[in-house]
Amino acid sequence: MKKSLVALALLGAFSAAHAQSSVTIYGTLDAGFAKTTNTTPGVSSPTTIGKRDNNKLGFRGQEDLGSGLKALFQLEIRFEPDTGTIEGVTRPLFQGQSRVGLQGDFGTIRLGRGLTALQESTVAYEPFNGLPNVAGFQTDLQVGGYRTSLAGSGSDPLGLAGNSGNRFANGVFYNSPVYNGFQLNFTWGTKENNGGPGAAIVGRGTAAAPQYAAGAMGSAYPYSVSATYTEPGSAPRYSILLANERNATEAKLWQIAGYVRPMPALKLMATYNKQDLDNFIAAGKPNHEMDSWVVGLNYTMGPGKLLLGYGQKNPDMVAKTKQASIGYEYSLSPRTYVYLDLSNKKLPTTATATTEITQNHYSMGIHHNF
Amino acid sequence: MKKSLVALALLGAFSAAHAQSSVTIYGTLDAGFAKTTNTTPGVSSPTTIGKRDNNKLGFRGQEDLGSGLKALFQLEIRFEPDTGTIEGVTRPLFQGQSRVGLQGDFGTIRLGRGLTALQESTVAYEPFNGLPNVAGFQTDLQVGGYRTSLAGSGSDPLGLAGNSGNRFANGVFYNSPVYNGFQLNFTWGTKENNGGPGAAIVGRGTAAAPQYAAGAMGSAYPYSVSATYTEPGSAPRYSILLANERNATEAKLWQIAGYVRPMPALKLMATYNKQDLDNFIAAGKPNHEMDSWVVGLNYTMGPGKLLLGYGQKNPDMVAKTKQASIGYEYSLSPRTYVYLDLSNKKLPTTATATTEITQNHYSMGIHHNF
Amino acid sequence: MKKSLVALALLGAFSAAHAQSSVTIYGTLDAGFAKTTNTTPGVSSPTTIGKRDNNKLGFRGQEDLGSGLKALFQLEIRFEPDTGTIEGVTRPLFQGQSRVGLQGDFGTIRLGRGLTALQESTVAYEPFNGLPNVAGFQTDLQVGGYRTSLAGSGSDPLGLAGNSGNRFANGVFYNSPVYNGFQLNFTWGTKENNGGPGAAIVGRGTAAAPQYAAGAMGSAYPYSVSATYTEPGSAPRYSILLANERNATEAKLWQIAGYVRPMPALKLMATYNKQDLDNFIAAGKPNHEMDSWVVGLNYTMGPGKLLLGYGQKNPDMVAKTKQASIGYEYSLSPRTYVYLDLSNKKLPTTATATTEITQNHYSMGIHHNF
Lengths: 370, 370, 370
What we know:
Three copies of one chain form a homotrimer.
Chain A: E1 5-8, H1 10-14, E2 22-36, E3 48-50, E4 55-66, E5 69-79, E6 97-104, E7 107-115, H2 117-122, E8 167-175, E9 182-189, E10 202-203, E11 206-210, E12 223-230, E13 238-246, E14 252-263, E15 266-276, E16 289-301, E17 304-315, E18 321-333, E19 336-348, E20 356-369
Antiparallel strand pairs in A: 1-2, 2-3, 2-4, 2-20, 4-5, 5-6, 6-7, 7-8, 8-9, 9-12, 10-11, 12-13, 13-14, 14-15, 15-16, 16-17, 17-18, 18-19, 19-20
C-alpha cells in the first residue's frame, strides 16, 4: 500500500460534486552505501553513495466523471539522490511516467509514456521487489538480457542514448478490470523515433548496413501484452504470469512467471524468459537468441524480511551470467525501512564476450516513501 | 474557469492573519493520436501520439500583505506527454512562466519570464482557444509569421535555439485593473542575450554581415502592449483588442482583433496582423513585410463545442499560407474533454519559398485539467 | 522562521498513527533590476533582470517513527527567475539539496547532496544573510576564495562544469543535537568523481602533469566540520563558529566567525578564513595560500533592516579583492520584502592577475518566500 500525501481540492469540496479534484504528491527517497568489486577487471569501485530503488517525486490525480467513469493522470520525476540530477543525468524529466486517460467498467486506458505491460507485470514475481538494485534481478536477468546495453534490444531501442529500456514512449496503455483473478494488460506504441542515436543495429547477413540509422522509425508497431491470474482475495496464495513483447526493431520476448505462498510468511517465485533478436542478428552470431531464469523467495519475520534469489542468463555464443543474492529489510514504519544487500555475479566481460568476470556487491541504506 | 488543487497553508490558518499562505498545484495533461500528410513533400508522418494543448504542471500562490496589496508568484513546468521530456526537450524547466510580483489598486506588476502582453491577450480571439495545436491558428497565422522559424522574428529572437517565440525573458509585466471593461497590458524587457545561437540575422544591404552574432545583445529594449475593451459582465457580447510589439532585434508587429456573441452559444472571432522586419531584411527581399488574418467561430451545443476557422498569411515574395480547420470538443466534466480536429493547410515549402505544399492533419485525444 | 505550505496527509490523519505523512511545498522567488559596471574592463553590463537570493521550489517531509525517531527527506529545485531555466542552466535539477535520513536523540544523519557543514554554518555570520548576491560576501570573500573559479578549489572540485562549489555530492551529513548552545556538524563524502571535466589541476613542481584528469577520483575523502556555540534562548546575544573543510583534491579551509548583539536591533559580525592549496599549487605560485576576512552589521528599524559590510581577500602573488556593500530591506510581511543593494568591489582582472579592476553594482527587487 502506497502512503502518500493527499491534498484535497478544497474548491471542489465546497462546490459541485463533479469537481472532486485531488492531486497526490508522492515519492521515494532511497540512499545508502554501496561497493562493487571488479567493476573493471582487477579494479574495485570505491565505496559510493548509491541507491537501491528508483528515486521519485510524483504527482497524480483522478476526477470522478460520473457513471463510474474517471479521468486519471500521473507524472513522475526520477532523480539521483547522491548528486541531485535527473535520473541518469540525461533521461526525461518525467522518466517514471507521464500518462493521462480514462478508467471505467471497461478497464483503464491511458496515453503517454510508461512501463510496458510485460515490464510492469513482471516485478511481482522477482525476489528483490522488482527494484533496479545491483543485487536484484529485474533489470538484467528477469527480462532475459532484453535491455539497452544490446543495440536493438529493450523496450525503447530508438530512444535517446541512456534512456531506460523498459518503457514505451508514444504509447497506449490498456489494463482490463480484474475478472475472478484474471487480468489482461496491453501496451501499443507508434513507430516514432524518440531521438535514437542510431547505434549500429546491423541487418542479418549485411554486416556493413545498419537497418536502423539515427532518426529512423521502427519497422513494426511495438506491443507488449501480459496476462495474469492471481488467487482472488487479500492474501493470494498463488499467481501466474504469461507475457510477450515485440519492440520497434522487432526484438521479441516471451515470459512465464509465477509465485506460491505455502504459508503467509513465505513467498516462492520463479521466472523464465526467452528472447529472439533474429530480425537483426543472424543465426550463429552472438546474442541471436537467449534465455534466462530466476528463482527466489521472500520470508517475513515481524518487521524483518529476508530476500533470496538466484538466476542465470544464457545468450547464444556468449558467456553465461550467473547471480546469487541475499538481502534483508528492516521496517521502521510502513513507509520506511533500512536494508542490507549482498550479491555475487559472474558475467561476460562485454556484451558479446565468451570470457567472464566475477563481481561482488554490497549495499546498505535507507528507503523512505512519502 | 480553472479548476485546480488548493492546498491551504494550515500553518497560516492556525497562526496570524498575515501568513495566509497558499500554494496551488495545477496543470494540464493532453494527449492523443495525430497524423499529418506531406510533412516532407510526398511523405506523410506515421500516426503519432501527440498533443493538442501545452502540457503543464504549475505552482502558484499569493500572500495578502494588507491594504489591498498582494504578493504573487507562479512557476509552470511544461512537458511532452508522449516522451516525458521537458517541452521541446531543451526548453527551460519553467517554460510556461516564472514570475513574482505585487498586485494592488494600481494593477499587477511582475518580474521574470512569461507571455508578452500581445501574445497573452490574443488567445481570446482565436477559434481554437489559442492552443498551439496544428489545427489552431495562434502559433503561426494569428501572429502573422512572427515566430522562431524566421531568424530575428518572434518575441525572444536572442534566446536559446528551440525556445518558444512568444515570451520575454528578463521582463517586467504590467496589467492594469479593468476599468469599465477596459484593460491595458504592458511588457518590457532588457537587452540581455538569453543564450541565442546567433543565427544569421543579416543586416539590410549587407548580405554577408549578421547584425546579431552569437551572444549579441538586443539593439532595442523590447516591449509589447495590448489594450482590450470587453463588455462588462459575466457573459460579454463583444470585445476588441489593439496590440503592438517590438522585439530586441526590432521586428515590429501590430494586431487588431475582436469577437462578438450574437447569441450566447455563438462566438464569432477575427484577427488582423501586420509584421515589419525592415530592420534586418531589405525591402524587396522575402519576408520584409507580411500580414495575416484569421476568422472563426465557436458554437456550443450542450456538452459539445464546434470550432471553425480560416486564415491566411501573406509574406512579401513568399508563397501564401492558407489554413482551414474544424474541431469538436465534448466535455466529460468541467475539467475534462475529448476532441477531434481536422485541418487543411497550404504553406510555402521553406520560409522563403514561392512554391507551396498541402498538408492535411487530424488529431483526436483527451484534455484534462487539474 | 520559514512560512510555507503544509499539506497534511489526510490519509494518514484518518488511519493509523504511524502514517502521519506530510509534504511541505516551500520556496523562494526573488527577482529585481541589477547593473554592474566594468564587467569587462571599460564596459558596463546593461541593466538586467537578476536575483539577490537563490530561487527555489522545494519538497520536504518527515515521518514520526516512534520512540523519538523521525525519517526526513528534502528535495529542492533551484532556478533562474528571469529565464525560467534550472539554476546556471546546467546544474542538477535538485541543486538545492536531495537528502534522506533519520533524526533522533543522537542528532540528524542524512545521505545525498547538500551544503557542507562549513558552508551551511557560515551564513549566520555574514551581513547579507548569506545570500549569493553580488553585494554579499558569502560566495567569494567569506569562504576565502574557496570556489569554483579556481581549479581544484571549492567543495566539489570534481563535479560537473558549472556546478556550485559549496556542496558535497555523495555525502553523509551529521548534525548533533544542540547541547547548552553547542552544536557539532560533520559532512563526509566519497572519492567519487561527479562528472568533473578535469580542468588542469597541475601537480606541484610538475607543471605539465595534471593530478586530476577528467573523470579522476578524489585523492582523499572530503570532509567538512563546524562547531558553533550560540547563547541559548530565543534572542541569542552572541555566537561563535569554528570550521574546517578539506575537499577531494585536498584544498584546505579554516574558518572562525562570530557575532554579537549589543542591543536587540544591532548584530555585529566578523569572519576570518585561511585557505591552503599546497597539494596542487607550489609555494611561490599564485594562490598557493590565501586568507580573507569580512566584517559587517545588521540594524533593524521596524520593518526596515540596514545591512553593511566590508571584506578583503589576500591570495599569494595575486591582487587583493576589497569589497564594501550597503543594503536595505523593507518587509511587506514576514514572507515578503523589497530590497536595494549597492556595492563597490576591487578585484584582480583574472584569478591569477596582479592588476585590478573596480566594479560598482546596484540591485533592487522583491523577495518572496512561500
